[in-house]
From TrEMBL:
PROSITE patterns: RIESKE (PS51296). The keyword Transcription regulation does not apply. InterPro entries: Rieske_2Fe-2S, Rieske_2Fe-2S_sf. Pfam families: Rieske (PF00355). PANTHER family: PTHR40261, RIESKE DOMAIN-CONTAINING PROTEIN (PTHR40261:SF1). Keywords: 2Fe-2S, Iron, Iron-sulfur, Metal-binding. This is Rieske domain-containing protein. It comes from Cupriavidus numazuensis. It comes from the Bacteria. Residues 12-118 form the Rieske domain. SUPFAM superfamilies: ISP domain. The keyword DNA-binding does not apply.
Length: 133
């Protein structure tokens, strides 16, 4: 299991590597920021895996109006379904739309041994399991 970027916190398994197809559906997961839980996602682009908070840089809304659909039709850009902001999948930079020049919040995603992991780094921690006090 890969080391986390935070001492004592394990990398979090997200999905088998084959579940992320280049330019295809993303995998959604949840991260903790202080006491909040925030949606996040991982996608594959140009062979590599990338992950971001699922929050548009324009208004903090989730990007995918159809769950897991983050790419626009060409498969070259991530798109926010609300007002159409377009993001580079590998950098998270908004290259078109109302928040041009802003960026998605990037997470550290790694692929090892046929599996995709989120490697938590401050200020993003594994979300507390639901119902955990
Ligand atoms: S909320 Fe994403 S473009 Fe406006």
């Amino acid at each position: 299991m890969p080391e986390s970027g935070i001492e004592g916190v394990a990398a979090q398994f997200l999905c088998p590597a084959e579940a992320l197809v280049d330019g295809g559906s993303g995998v959604r997961f949840t991260v903790g920021i202080n006491t909040r839980q925030v949606g996040a996602f991982a996608v594959r682009f140009d062979g590599a895996v990338h992950g971001y908070l699922n929050q548009c840089a324009h208004v903090p809304m989730e990007l995918d109006w159809q769950e897991g659909q983050f790419f626009e039709s060409s498969g070259l850009y991530l798109i926010c379904a609300t007002h159409g902001a377009m993001y580079e999948p590998d950098s998270g930079l908004c290259v078109g739309g109302p928040c041009r020049g802003a960026s998605l919040a990037k997470l550290r995603i790694e692929e090892r041994d046929g599996k995709v992991f989120w490697v938590p780094e401050a200020p993003y921690y594994p979300a507390e399991p639901a119902g955990d006090a």
